[in-house]
Amino acid sequence: xxxxxxxxxxxxxxxxxxxxxxxxxxxxxxxxxxxxxxxxxxxxxxxxxxxx
Length: 52
Known about the structure:
With 52 residues, the chain is mainly α. Helix content is 71%, strand content 0%. The chain is built from three helices and no strands. It starts with a helix and ends with a helix.
């Protein structure tokens, strides 16, 4: 039971850090281009294969 005195604040601190990281990623524009990565996967990169 005494361990809860330590574990609850640690869990709240870790949750706050995760929330802060998520809010930072929102403000820095990490989710602006949701379709760009999908199109880059489908792009045909023949030029890169001929360079090797």
